[in-house]
Automatic annotation (TrEMBL):
The chain crosses the membrane at residues 44-66, 143-161, 232-252, 258-277. Pfam families: ABC_membrane, ABC_tran. The keyword Thylakoid does not apply. This is ABC transporter domain-containing protein. Its main location: membrane. It is a multi-pass membrane protein. Belongs to the ABC transporter superfamily. ABCB family. Multidrug resistance exporter (TC 3.A.1.201) subfamily. Keywords: ATP-binding, Membrane, Nucleotide-binding, Repeat, Transmembrane, Transmembrane helix, Transport. It is found in: Membrane. It comes from Eucalyptus grandis (Flooded gum). One of its GO terms (molecular function) is ATPase-coupled transmembrane transporter activity. Signal peptide: none annotated. Residues 319-555 form the ABC transporter domain. GO terms for cellular component: plasma membrane. The lineage of its organism: Eukaryota, Viridiplantae, Streptophyta, Embryophyta, Tracheophyta.
Amino acid sequence: MGSVVHGMAQPVGYLLLGKALDAFGSHIDNKDGIVHALKKVVPYVWYMAIATFPAGILEIGCWMYASERQTTRIRLEFLRSVLRQEIGAFDTELSSGKVIAGISTHMSVIQDAIGEKLEHFLSCFATFFSGVSIAFICSWEVSLVTLFVVPLILLIGATYTKKMNAISAAKMIYLSEATTVVEQTISHIKTVFAFVGEDRAIKSFSDCMDKQSVISRGEALIKGVGTGMFQAVTNSSWALIIWIGAIVVTAGRSSGGHVIAAVMSILFGAISITYAAPDMQVFNQAKAAGNEVFKVIRRQPTISNASGGIVLKEIEGNIDIRNIHFSYPSREDKVILQGFTLSIPAGKTVALVGSSGCGKSTVISLVARFYDPSKGVILIDNHNIRDLDLKCLRQNNGAVSQEPSLFAGTIKDNLKVGNLDADDQQIENAAMMENAHNFISQLPDKYSTEVGQRGFQLSGGQKQRIAIARAVLKNPPILLLDEATSALDSQSEKLVQKALEKAMQGRTVILIAHRLSTIVNADEIAVVENGQVRETGTHSTLLDTSKFYNNLFNMQNISVVCDERVLSEKGTEIEESLREDPEQEEHKKRLEAVHFFRIWFGLRRTELVKIAIGSIAADFSGISKPVFGFFIINMQSGNWLLSLVSHILQHYYFGVVGEKAMTNLRKALNLRFCPWFSPPPPRASPGTQVAAC
Ligand SMILES: Nc1ncnc2c1ncn2[C@@H]1O[C@H](COP(=O)(O)OP(=O)(O)OP(=O)(O)O)[C@@H](O)[C@H]1O
């Protein structure tokens, strides 16, 4: 309502202006008559002024509030849906770039469209419709002329919208691809630096940007032609309307004030439609963004924790894996497990050994039901895990993976992931048990030390010990240990191994380790080959019966793994790196300024020429309106052409240069500055910050 009232205010104002002009024109030699006639008009001007004030508040306030609330809800739904999906979806449809673009870039576009732009669009259309209505009331002859103009404007609008729609969708795809590149690079930044992959990363990013640039050039041209044609058509129609108005007044069929009110209402109604045209572009972008977002929201996961299932009060831990066949959704043609069968009685430890890539970790993923096998069943305490409540199943599993994943936050936050209700004493006990307490105590803020993105500021061994302590804190009946001690040095491994053995007591454990020292005490060892269990037995029996195991044992006896790390040194390194250097701060500020200028001065001479042409064209398109107002009819023949050409040049050149500047900005935020990714630990991923640009 606020938008409609606000939009109507303009034509109503012209109606009142017309009435005021008539008050002067009809009583040209009679001052009292003018005052008397004006007294009838002025109160309505006041009423209008009073009505537009709350309308303005309602318009801006309500739209902003509603759009904020809606996008917050959509964002939440999006995140809920993402977290509801099965792991396989992340291997295929839900790349991290897509998810990040969905929750940041796409949502901003949607918020803009359903807030500010919709409000503006409604207001413009209210101006147009009320303008046409007032014009018909004031002078039907003048109004009829608009019937010829409006379809033309709508035709241009429809064509423009269709073209921009296609362009927006294509741009979204490339933006998503570019976001994925940045996300991948930032999340593996050390590897990128180690392999001197910065240039390759920038090249992949530039390729996406170049594709987007080509599309943007087309977009700028279409925008220029569309807006220019809008202006040209409205300018030409103004001339026609004014000409008809002059005839009507001369013939005495309407007063001059009414004709002026009709002309102004129609003219500015038509202009308001042209102002609404760019909103259509945002609606198109929002439509494309909404499609992407709602595709994710509506996606039904194949494995869902919302589908209910049996909640077991207590799990003993008998695991029975029967004739499992499995291939990953992203590579369905490659069969990983083919008839894998293994029984693990409650409280026992079974170790899996086999060559790299034979499917050991896959078995653990299936027991945790990250994926479902295509054939065969996995039973826990004689219940098919497909029938169990997913949350119940996972709450009773404690997993430590090959790559311990820590979250940005403190060490305590990370340990509490295992048990949110754990108190400080329980946390410390778990850390002590896993030989993590010592190194934590040496850190600057002890348990409150920030670990950085993905535990960036800790060594691999430290991360692994925190991950083990986290699993122990969860106290589950089933432990899934996938190379849980692979990143530890030999000394720490021995200590953690002892602690792990203690933690494994009374639990069912599936253990994967390449170092045989870790598995010699397992109750049973299964040798996995080509996705099947080939042999089983204890360490001593397998030494006699399994050629593979025997070879492995002999090989490990001659190769001494040396992975000495001085833990206290690492602690000191972190302390050093956490300290802020004032000179660095100053340098950082200077760098920021340099980056800003790089965006513009990175533009070459051709771009500067384009900026100059675009600016001159923008000046002309701005000048065309007051010039038209001054020469109202005489200039029309030239004015539409001026308007068309200036709009095309303005939008095209600024579009092209704007895209180039954005590319420069993205490149300026390049990956060359290693310290940029280090402390102080950012809460929001830098990848997200770069991509959000
Ligand atoms: N998410 C995935 N999508 C597609 N293929 C995958 C995925 N994860 C693993 N694979 C493939 O499945 C096969 C088995 O992987 P798995 O991680 O189970 O092996 P593994 O025996 O644990 O190896 P390693 O001892 O080296 O850890 C490998 O060929 C691997 O490339």
